[in-house]
Fold this sequence. Notes:
The structure is a single chain. By secondary structure, the protein is an alpha/beta fold. The longest helix has 17 residues, at 708-724. The radius of gyration is 28 Å and the shape is globular.
Amino acid sequence: MSETPLVLRVAVPSPLHTLFDYLPAPDTDPGTYRPGVRLRVPFGRGRRVGVLVARVEGAQVDPSRLRAVEAVLDDAPLLDEPLLELGRWAAAYYLAPPGEVLAQLLPPSLRDGAAQSGRDRAFYRLSDEGRGVAGVPGARALRQQAVWQVLARADAALSQDQLLTRLEGFDAPALRNALRALMARGWVSRCEAPVSGVSGVKDVGGGYATGPELNPAQSEAVEALVSARGGYAPFLLEGVTGSGKTEVYLRAIAGTLGAGRQALVLVPEIALTPQLVARFEARFGARVVLLHSGMADGARLESWRRAREGRASVVIGTRSAVFAPLAAPGLIVVDEEHDPSYKQQEGFRYHARDVAIWRARQLGIPVVLGSATPSLETLRRVGQGSYRRLALPRRATGASLPRIEVLDIRRRPMKGGLSDVLVESARAHLLAGGQVLFFLNRRGYAPALLCHACGWAASCTACDAHMTVHRALRRLRCHHCGAERPLPARCPACGGELMHAGEGTEQIEDALRGLFPEFTIERIDRDTTRRRGALEERLESVRSGRAHILVGTQMLAKGHDFPDMSLVGVIDADQGLFSSDFRASERLAQLLVQVAGRAGRGARPGEVLIQTHCPEHPLLHTLVTQGYDAFARQLLTERERAGLPPYGALALLRAEAKDGALAEALLNEAAHAAAAAPGVSVLGPVPAPMARRAGRERRQLLLQAAERAPLRQALRHALAVIEASPDARRVRWSVDVDPVEMF
């Protein structure tokens, strides 16, 4: 009688919602196959790198049909059992392919099969002689000078990967050459990793800077967070803009580090991470690491390793960092928890805030959700008693909140989107020595180009969208698919005169240069900050006072502190008032409150002027006159009556194809299957709000239920039908559980 074979269940990156069975490689020790190791396996006609999830005795099919593993890539599991459990939960909750989910838990180089310990682990620091010099002389030693400056500012030795994250315009060979030259001068020495493990981390009283004195509300919040250490406890830290939420995070993290544990801090955007990292490094030194998708692969891998091995005490990152390995987890912080950037919109569509909450419960540690404008989901859980609310009702500096006024711009003369009232108010603030921020969440010069004679409009040939005018580049660009073409001088249809419709940040900047030629202007949007380091340069120009006027998009709405900013002008508040997306008004309110919070944070009183054609809109009126809390309560009442989140559960099935009929047919099959689940409303399929994008026709199917269990049952029925359909291979389709974008 033959022995029962050992079968390996492997998560292979693929769009299929299943694990794949393999046999061990011939003549290998079964003990090397431990859950969490990477395996190179044959897959289809090629090979892929997967993660071993489980070992089972016996196969569900004839073992002769199973293929053998080609290689075991790790001596020990890269993913420990808590991370594997997190991956299994996320795959089940978001109905995502397990191979794609577990791949998300690894840095890109490890997903591709690279050795996880093959990088140079040496660290570098200035020698005593190097600290005694004023700098590196010679015009031809600029790279050496840059490396010397970074090491001079560091309070601990740095690896090559850490140096690369701090140096502008360096690649690995250039860094090695500079280090070699500095070591030849005797100014830099090489050493081993400075610390191994998390024990012995200094607390605030043992060497860290203590920061500013806390006010009573901050002290109460810190005490609550520190006392919760050692068990799962979810908190909402709700504080007005400028109330000192970051200082509360720092104090709570100091206590966590003092207990020999690690902290994970999530921020919504990469633009916020350099400032936050600088503040955390000033408090905690070199044991802070950055982890996000914009990093070079080597630097990202090194940060991942340091977190996993406990050599990093604080991990700061964007949404993907929620899966960072932690040797001794002690606290999770989600800053700006309301921000939609925490939801992944492609591939594995997880929400980092919700994953962080589940992970904190799994690990038995506190989690802090911070915001001046909490999401309705979080506010409902506070109302249910599931989360504890910690309030910071006043600004930490003692400054008053800005005065907010709505400007009715109907029938008013406008220049470049600016009303005369806003212009004159800006002039008064500038002449008084203040700075002014003009906020418009549209980049480019104008969102549309029209012919005054025949009505022709510059449209994208691949999307149902107008192309945006970028006048400085003399280009038309589609902000949805990236297509672009030259800016025409005359109408291509009739030769008539072309006119711009609407305003973007580029046009606002042009108008302001004409109105305020004596003042320096900085524009901050995705177009002006593409170059590495450009954002930090422009922000520093504002903080230092060299720039007097700032024009920008939502990149400026949160996390920035400009002490001399006394006026914020919101150019257009109407975009979110009449959207087809039920979340649009919530997002508009959050954005307005956040950008308004940039005003009056220092000694100068703050003022906010909001331009609108709809001053009588009830939601806008409630927000301005009664504040965000009253606004949120009003929205929660509306959502409850409509059965919308957070009082109901949603899932969105999307499909797109060159032939829209194929996408619609596939979703029709899914709709019939989902309708068999009781208690679920099946809406659609219908064309997406943008029915054609990047040359593909888009359809969507919305599933709505009062409870999550029937919704999950409906989704399982629908997915089974889709995966069995022969049309599924000709259609791009996805499932989005708890969607935050209906687009």
